[in-house]
């Protein structure tokens, strides 16, 4: 109840003259440089007080309980028996029955069980030999919807499962790079030189044609010459996870958004959307890894377009709110117009040259609800689900206190030590990300299987032709 004496809310009685006196002079560009310099000093200060990651992330160890519960399908008693019987296997550290193992240990133990354990048990996840990695882009035009969290957790789940994972950070904010403990000095350690190289190769081709026709070559600058010497392997770094590597990002990667259209203006025939995918294929990165995860910025810029074009599977996280639903609908609309206009332009040119037409194709696309609060959002989520239909997973990733809250050294559920959490919080938090992985793993395995059938059918058709 108002007593009649409550003070007015703070936005009444503001005196414009006083407000003007409190203002500093108008801001010029140089002021930003000063703000940045102060921030850099503050950053140093915070780092000295122990607030910043030290750049030497270490992955925690995994307990016997955790291994038998989540990682290798064996009973603890049997697990201990096997360790006793094979003293050369990693024995873990710690007192009593619960030993703690590094992930390298876990991977070795899994190999042992895969070779010697009970037949018919899935010690190692399925992966068809000889087929390329599955590339998964996590994208949404909307910011803060859980792209990076989803991609990071998927990378870690896949790694715990025993897959070899590459994470590509295409967001110049570099959040994924921090999560993976990466160090990126400048744009030359990001995806930028791979895009530059793709353009440089296209430009070389063009110049050969021009030379043959007696035309002057298009200019070839230092950036392009240097980019030609770089391969994807040069920019990929290991992480504190033994089976996750990183192609990192840093603020300068944003430069690509300005540079790519300039290159395209210069050479209209350059298929700029294929640059990243070409690099991953030509440098045989798709043969070195099982799963490649692309984290994208909250924009449909050239980096995101490259990620989408390189992807087999597209995941679109969104929260169950009106604004995120609305914005995600627009994102699909933008995807349609962007890729349809690329197809139209390309195919017009291809028809003129008598070449076969091209079209973009994805193995699977799934919107996924993130940060879901069943008590508040079930209605909205059901409606969203009805509209997206099979474009959406039926599974919803719950909001959990375990994400975002962990310290700088630890990111997300898989890096956190379960002993530091209330058991229910841990089990529920872990389950929601385990199920996210299960949904995506099902898509990966299903599409690999489909590829394998197609490959075998093609090979059979080829043999028939050879026979006939
Ligand atoms: N399941 C979850 N439970 C609780 N918090 C979450 C969950 N998923 C994400 N978050 C939090 O939501 C915020 C945004 O998540 P995230 O950074 O993954 O989004 P993003 O889409 O990558 O953002 P950006 O568009 O800036 O790249 C972060 O603070 C993150 O910790
Ligand atoms: Mg992000």
UniProtKB/TrEMBL annotation:
Could you tell me which InterPro entries the record lists for this protein? AAA_dom (IPR025669), DNA_Partitioning_ATPase (IPR050678), P-loop_NTPase (IPR027417)
Q: Which Gene3D superfamilies match?
A: P-loop containing nucleotide triphosphate hydrolases
Organism equals: Paracoccus sediminis
Q: What's the protein name?
A: ATPase
AAA domain segment(s): 133-323
What domain of life does the UniProt record list for this protein's source? Bacteria
């Amino acid at each position: 109840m108002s007593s009649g004496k409550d003070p007015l809310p703070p936005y009444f009685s503001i005196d414009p003259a006083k407000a003007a006196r409190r203002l500093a002079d108008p801001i010029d560009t140089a002021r930003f440089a000063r703000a940045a310099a102060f921030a850099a000093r503050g950053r140093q200060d915070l780092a000295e007080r122990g607030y910043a990651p030290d750049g030497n992330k270490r992955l925690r160890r995994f307990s016997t309980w955790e291994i038998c519960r989540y990682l290798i399908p064996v009973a603890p008693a049997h697990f201990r028996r096997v360790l006793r019987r094979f003293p050369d296997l990693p024995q873990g550290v710690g007192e009593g029955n619960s030993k703690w193992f590094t992930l390298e240990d876990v991977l070795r133990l899994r190999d042992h069980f895969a070779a010697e354990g009970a037949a018919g048990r899935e010690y190692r996840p399925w992966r068809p030999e000889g087929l390329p990695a599955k590339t998964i882009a996590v994208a949404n035009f909307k910011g803060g919807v859980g792209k990076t969290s989803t991609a990071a957790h998927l990378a870690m789940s896949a790694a715990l499962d025993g897959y070899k994972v590459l994470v590509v950070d295409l967001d110049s904010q570099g959040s994924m790079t921090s999560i993976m403990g990466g160090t990126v000095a400048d744009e030359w350690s990001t995806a930028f030189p791979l895009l530059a190289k793709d353009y440089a190769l296209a430009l070389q081709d063009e110049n050969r044609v021009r030379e043959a026709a007696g035309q002057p070559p298009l200019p070839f600058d230092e950036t392009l010459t240097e980019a030609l010497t770089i391969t994807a392997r040069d920019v990929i770094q290991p992480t504190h996870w033994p089976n996750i590597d990183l192609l990192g990002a840093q603020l300068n990667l944003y430069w690509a958004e300005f540079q790519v259209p300039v290159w395209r203006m210069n050479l209209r025939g350059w298929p700029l959307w294929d640059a990243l995918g070409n690099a991953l294929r030509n440098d045989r990165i798709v043969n070195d890894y099982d799963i490649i995860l692309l984290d994208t910025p909250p924009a449909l810029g050239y980096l995101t377009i490259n990620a989408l074009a390189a992807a087999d599977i597209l995941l679109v996280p969104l929260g169950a709110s009106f604004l995120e639903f609305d914005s995600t609908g627009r994102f699909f609309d933008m995807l349609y117009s962007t890729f349809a206009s690329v197809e139209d332009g390309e195919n017009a040119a291809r028809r003129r040259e008598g070449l076969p037409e091209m079209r973009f194709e994805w193995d699977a696309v799934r919107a996924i609800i993130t940060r879901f609060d069943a008590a508040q959002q079930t209605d909205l989520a059901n409606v969203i689900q009805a509209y997206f239909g099979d474009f959406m997973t039926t599974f919803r990733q719950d909001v959990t206190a375990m994400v975002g809250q962990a310290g700088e050294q630890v990111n997300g559920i898989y890096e956190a030590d379960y002993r530091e959490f209330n058991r229910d919080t841990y089990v529920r938090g872990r389950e929601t990300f385990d199920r996210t992985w299960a949904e995506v793993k099902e898509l990966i395995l299903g599409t690999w299987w489909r590829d394998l059938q197609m490959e075998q059918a093609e090979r059979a058709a080829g043999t028939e032709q050879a026979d006939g």
